[in-house]
Input
Amino acid sequence: MLCSPKFLLPVMILAVPVAALAQSRAYPNVGTPLSQAEIQSFDRMIGPEGKELPPGRGTAKEGAAIFAKRCEICHGKGKNEDNGLLRSLVIGSPGKPYRGAFYGEERNGPSYYPYATVAWDYINRAMPVTDPGSLTPNEVYALVAFLYYRNGIIQENDVMDEKTLPKVEMPNRNGFVPAVPVYPPQKKPSWY
Amino acid sequence: MDSNRSSRRRFLKQTAALAGVATGAGLAVRGQSAQAQHVHGEPPRRGARYSIDHMTHYTPLQDYAGIITPPPLHFMQQHSSEFPEIDVQQHRFTIHGLVDRPLSFTVEELKRLPSVSRIHFLECHGNSSPASHGAGNPTNVGLPVQFIHGMTSCSEWSGVPLSVLLNEAGLQKEASWLVSEGADAGKFSHTLPLAKAMEDVIVAYGQNGEPLRVEQGYPIRLVVPGWEAPFSVKYLRHIKVVDQPYVAWNESMNHSVTRPDLRDKARWYHFQFGPKSVVTRPSAGLEMLGRGYVQITGLAWSGAGVVSKVEVSTDGGRSWKEAKRHAPVLPRAHTRFTFDWAWDGEEAVIQSRCTDEAGEVQPSLAELTKNWGMHLEDWKKTPRPRAIHFNAIQPWKIARDGSISDAMFA
Output
């Protein structure tokens, strides 16, 4: 089924035009070119490999203090998993990370994330909700260390920085099909 | 004009803020959106749900005709507790990453470029979820078709093809995916394969002839036809062209679900929707007005393209007859169907089945259950298994007294 010509055809058709697109502008009077400095001022999106991570460092202990100051008001107290929204941040117990289930919790916690960079990217861009983007890189590294420590993914004294974070082995890394997202999907029908 | 607009916005904000406070205290609040009240005149406390980090509006599928959802009634899943207030003059849309010419556009500039207007449905990947059927659904207060299947809507979207903008920026040869980011507080972000971006994706500024509503992403949003709606990022601000799927936070969280047939692993993305349909009248929560002629009507759609056939059964699925599809029948759009029927006053189960241009047929619950490596008894577990992209045939059961109930899991 996977190798039938019916499904290989779209792959071949799509591969050609995408590669042949580097042409000149059709509407050169519309839009403004962006300089590298301008792009750096707004581009915060971090990929799975962490190539865009800024320098910085933090530990779980530092993260616990920042969590109490900046996050606890919405996410609940860090000491009790059943208290408030911390339930969705710490699912499972340290050493036994929860990896999501069909018959299970409504939400998946950080131990479900495929890549260690996911939490860093989201906290950095979107948290805290009252003042998103206001955390420093050190604070974000510390909060991620705190979250991953509480989910049993790293040790309490592990230092998270731009080198160590992308190397953290996520417990659910192999919990997805296929191993890396592909398009068009190889399984048919695509919605199953 | 200006004061009207700001008072509407203030009202929306207050509604959201009040609802957020109430749910923060552990109460489920069913609010009424100011927008829905404006056109539709629904009774209060219907059609919306608010929580501390989430706002949902459901489309009242049982109440409108044709295929176009009035903008105030379009479904909404807002992954934050308020709508962003964006100054359209200041808003900039940028394309950067693996492109030859990183570019920034104002909304007025986007309107200078060649435009398209196309009718497409949007649907939440969680629409029709097994958990939303019956007593398990806290919002299920008498109009289940709205609260079970109402996270799909259909509009005429106007804007610039994304391919035009990507061509302006000049794609580099390593480019294979892109990741888009919204300007809302949650910075809603989503990955999109470049091939789809070049095919039919729209950077939309108009919906059914008017500017996008605030809750629909004003001033601009992506519309990714036929695909699960989280791809259609609202309040669109940045597109970064990259060489691999970036898998942003929300995609890592609830947009994938483990499945028994995948040995409890999860699909990354489901991309397009399969063939789907639902009878909107008569449907659970409504009542039969008497024996004799009844027009059965509903909506059918598919992410694969055009709906090529809709069939209706009035005997619990034993026999099927073709329903009338009403023009326009468009690719990746809702299609209105009707079926002439005479109710004899006896118990009956009515349902519809969609076939799309790819020849795929909407599955029964039994077929879908088998496809997913499950058993029918599995649906009786509490809570019901989580499932997204749920497109099983929806049976409605009509009792002799004319009452109608949801027979999906009954």
Observations:
- Chain B has a mean pLDDT of 85.
